[in-house]
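Batch manifest, entry 17 of 40.
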Amino acid sequence: MTTHFPAAVLFDMDGTLVDTEPYWMKAETELVADFGGVWTAEDGLTLVGSGLGNAAAILQSRGVTLPIGEIIDRLTARVLAQTLVDVPWRPGALELVHTLRDAGIPTALVTMSMRPLAEHVANATGRRMFDVLVTGADVAKPKPHPEPYERAAALLEVDIAECVAIEDSIPGLASASASGAAVVGVPAHVALPESESWVLWPTLAGRTVDDLRALRDSRVGVASGSAVQAGGAEDGEALP
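Output type: structure tokens
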């Protein structure tokens, strides 16, 4: 295990690395409309940070008469089609990833989206951005359970307590903080509460490795008495 800080930086994808939440909301709206229902922007905001299985179950309750897996596949295909036209990087996110890569600090993408979408985003610049991808299909328990972040640290062979996780949603912050990582919240479409378990930055623009190293002094995000316990998981995938 490594002892320097941060041993790795673990990025959420939708809303943190890329502003794809509007793509998801559009896909949800269209799918519900296909079955004669109505899905509003406010409805979409309630799913920010949720696992796709949970989102699909809610869409079923709104009249989408398809199996969970097919709903996930259809949503993913629609969002992927939009990202093929444009990958909407969030301010400072791409620059911070490149800075970390140049500094030799391992990085992981930890998302509850499916692998085809995660791989497209991870490869969008033509430069290797992440050492590891953990997706919704790779874990038994999605965010807000800590398993996704624990899985990423295990694949990187680093101590999760020496990692920084960056998130934009309440379920994501809960997952990351329960894992024991130091946690940064960067709000996008949903306001994030103040907490002793994470620090809030308005944006990643201008942020440096030194900003991440400074988190060690406060150890923001160390899990303490969390009610969620880790469960079993399927393996994620380290990138070649």
